[in-house]
């Protein structure tokens, strides 16, 4: 995986986007869930994919991975990946942290991680340093972990390999505030080496991590630009995301 | 009622009238029918084909409309056949007028079928998808075992002969095959109308919606369970009606009709005909019965006997040919026979009706 | 007492047979969502070919039987893997059609077996020891029961080891839980589909040879009969659970034996009643994952 290790180094400013999505339309059992979605993810930093509930953020992520039926073009590092089956796309250097964690409940923590290892030299030490809690619980069944610990497993499964892009779907959903900070810190750490496309509801986390934002509405992109441009405009945040800025209230 | 519906109804009525007139004509279709249409042998075969078509129609309602993949439909067909047979035998010594006894026996069989369907359905519908299929299979198997084991009342492996004491004279004997043919046609038409009525009813629409998306139906405040149970019961009772017709037509019931293989045959018929259309089940039933009969005749023919073993053995097994045909239809012809005109018209693949399984959500 | 012991051990023996069929069914269903009606045919073809080879080489001896077993295992694995590769795979993710196709294969293959080997059972020769009995706690137990139990025990142990110790085993266990997530980790889960079919086919193939020992004959319907009980076992045990299948196999078979003896041959009925009871109390089966 030489390509992947190249990508782990920060590319020079001005390098092209790592992910280019154009005209992506996704369907679940024949129903269109996203339509003609186009956006780009730069080769560095965190790009947040935002929008109200049910607007198609998860479907966009799943369409990129080929987990749902889709049409349109998806380029990773300039190479079309939309005709590939899911496992090839992932092998091509895409890490995926799904909504609701989706850890294998009947497998131990160690087995969950072992299953995810693709590289010849998986980054076990890195994972152990990032999530010391998991080392202690390596023989525990993932189903018996707390929500926060399961999220650590799910993140670790993606971070154990060198990736060219991470797709992270609502990593802080349903977690206690203290755990949210831990997850955010881990993502921040990961973002130093790999670009991330992040779906997130928590504005506090978005403010802390996101460099750029893409906002979906009605299954289409309605805003794409620098994070600050959107987040500093309270009225716009309210209108596009339907949420009050939690960090202001706090 | 628009013009198209009117034309369809008129066409349907004309078809039924034409079928009703067949016993009075002397049509000969060599290779398809064993003899001219007025002969008892041909009428018997056609009547049997129509009963199977009626049964397939009831099965399609469950599988195609409500998405319930049952492997136990044979149980209810057998319940109709054996139920009526056993009740007629039981009532043979009765002193009432024969017509009354016959009617009572039919009504009692219907009630029996209804109770059985409600019980099995209520239990089996507690699970969905493939588990449902297995559970219905298990119940049907129990029925099949009961029939084989209790030889004293069911005739066991020998089958149950029809006790004709109280059966109207017009429905007995080779000379009256014509009447039995009309009876079978009547049953087919009746089953068709009931199925049509259910599909057009509110319950039918809900059942269809349940097949597509159970969760959504639940969200709008309906209990999918109730609707599925209703469809299950109606389809099962219709199967029992076809079963009664079968008993009268064949002058007896064979244990084969209670087996899982018989249900599998039904499944083959419905898929062969096309799950998407009502008439697919009818065409499937008739094509299958005729094919089965002709292939059996072919298997015994000299032409086949002269072939080398490699060809002779498979070709002399009708079920081998039908099974292979079925696999090919599922692989390459989704939509079955009923889907062919549409495929030709549009030149595209028609998506088969694909019931979503709750188990794989 | 001796009757109870006899019924218990005979039940275990029959349960062993059920398990050899149900283990594959359960794994295949658990991993791929395919209800495999062709599984009985894997068993039957293995029984026939095992018998054909065994009797030609050395009929009625241990060598012959061992050879039959090997042939049965290989044939079962190969036929099952080919079925998956050539037919099931074309209908990837279309579960109802996959089940339908296996129905067609089952119907066609049984008819073909009838065409080749006839409709009547063919009685087979067995090593002398298997036709004798051993006395345990006053009960005279037919020796073939021990062979069945030992073989099923080995198969269970082997599959468990495979699932626990190998990477493919890990993939299969994960896939039974959530196969989409396995693909999303960059693993081509379809390769393990073929493997699971092969393993299930091998177990069924051994089951076929052992069934011919247990019943004393081979017939075109050997598989169909066992398949229905294996389905019941799989549902009771919980779809996708190997342990569930093992426990349910023994429970069902022992229950069947006792009911046949004490309740006037009602074994099959009692099994169905047990199935209904399990579904009422626990629709996902004894060890099944939550639906």
From TrEMBL, chain A:
Gene3D superfamilies according to UniProt: P-loop containing nucleotide triphosphate hydrolases
Membrane is among the record's keywords: no
Coiled coil residues, start to end: none
InterPro entries hit by this protein: AAA+_ATPase, ABC_transporter-like_ATP-bd, ABC_transporter-like_CS, BCAA_Transport_ATP-bd_LivF, P-loop_NTPase
Stored PANTHER family: ABC TRANSPORTER ATP-BINDING PROTEIN, HIGH-AFFINITY BRANCHED-CHAIN AMINO ACID TRANSPORT ATP-BINDING PROTEIN LIVF
Name the record gives this protein: ABC transporter ATP-binding protein
GO molecular function: ATP binding; ATP hydrolysis activity; branched-chain amino acid transmembrane transporter activity
GO aspect biological process, one term: L-amino acid transport
Sequence ranges assigned to domain ABC transporter in this UniProt record: 19-243
UniProt keyword terms in alphabetical order: Amino-acid transport, ATP-binding, Nucleotide-binding, Transport
SMART domains: AAA
Family listed: Belongs to the ABC transporter superfamily.
CDD domains assigned: ABC_TM1139_LivF_branched
UniProtKB/TrEMBL annotation, chain B:
Positions of transmembrane segments: 42-59, 66-88, 100-125, 180-198, 229-249, 261-291, 319-340
PANTHER family, per the entry: ABC TRANSPORTER ATP-BINDING PROTEIN, HIGH-AFFINITY BRANCHED-CHAIN AMINO ACID TRANSPORT SYSTEM PERMEASE
Biological source species: Agromyces tardus
Subcellular location field: Cell membrane
Superkingdom classification of source: Bacteria
Pfam family name, one: BPD_transp_2
Sorted UniProt keywords: Cell membrane, Membrane, Transmembrane, Transmembrane helix
Name of the molecule in the record: Branched-chain amino acid ABC transporter permease
The UniProt record lists the keyword Cell membrane: yes
Topology of the protein relative to the lipid bilayer: Multi-pass membrane protein
CDD domains referenced in this protein's UniProt entry, alphabetically: TM_PBP1_LivM_like (cd06581)
Keyword Transmembrane applies: yes
Gene Ontology cellular component annotations, sorted alphabetically: plasma membrane
Automatic annotation (TrEMBL), chain C:
A GO-annotated cellular component: plasma membrane
Compartment(s) of residence: Cell membrane
Keywords attached to this entry: Amino-acid transport, Cell membrane, Membrane, Transmembrane, Transmembrane helix, Transport
GO molecular function: transmembrane transporter activity
Transmembrane feature ranges: 6-27, 34-53, 65-87, 99-117, 146-163, 193-215, 227-254, 261-281
Gene Ontology biological-process entries: amino acid transport
Alphabetical list of Pfam families matching this protein: BPD_transp_2
Membrane topology field: Multi-pass membrane protein
InterPro entries for the chain: ABC_transp_permease, BCAA_transport_permease
Family of this protein: Belongs to the binding-protein-dependent transport system permease family. LivHM subfamily.
Protein name: Branched-chain amino acid ABC transporter permease
Species the sequence originates in: Agromyces tardus
